[in-house]
Amino acid sequence: MRELVLLIFANRSLDFCNAFWGLGDGVLFTRMRGAMRTTEELRNFWKERASIEEQDEIGELRSSPETLRLETDNLLRALSPAYSYYSRIDEDDERGGISRFRFFVYMSLAAFFFFFLPAIRPVQERVRRVADADA
């Protein structure tokens, strides 16, 4: 008798779960099978992604730091003539290298102000007169 009472209480604890099974439970079974398929597909997808990442990390990306170092060395070799040229100009400054450059810039500005500014002044004056007339 005691076993029968335990069996009844055991069944009562599963009453909620068992309420789903019966007429029309095909939809639930279909959904559960679909969920199992979806879970399996997701697991296969993530396995595939993990293998791709592992191959990239070990394969192609392993040589990336070496490639970066080689490209940096090539860039430095390509820029070294320019560096040596500008360092020579800097060293020649004691002998007037940069001073000659400054003199050239100042003379160019002086030529601009001496030759072109007088030609621009009448135009500026006309623009000023038109602006004053409009105001």
Explain what this protein looks like in three dimensions.
By secondary structure, the chain is mainly alpha-helical. The chain has a domain at 1-58. It contains 5 helices and no strands. The protein has helices spanning 2-13, 15-18, 26-58, 64-92, 97-134. It is elongated, with a radius of gyration of 43 Å. The mean pLDDT is 72.
Give the overall shape, derived from the CA principal axes.
elongated
Total number of beta strands = 0
- Total helical segments: 5
* Distance N to C terminus: 115 Å
Radius of gyration: 43 Å
Which structural class should the secondary elements be placed in? Answer: mainly alpha
If you average the pLDDT, what whole number results? Answer: 72
Helix content percent band = over 70%
Order of helices and strands: HHHHH
What's the quaternary structure here? single chain
Unreliable stretches (pLDDT < 50, length at least 5) are: none
Characterize the largest beta sheet: strand count, sense, and whether it forms a barrel.
none
- What portion of the residues fall into strands of 2 or more residues? under 5%
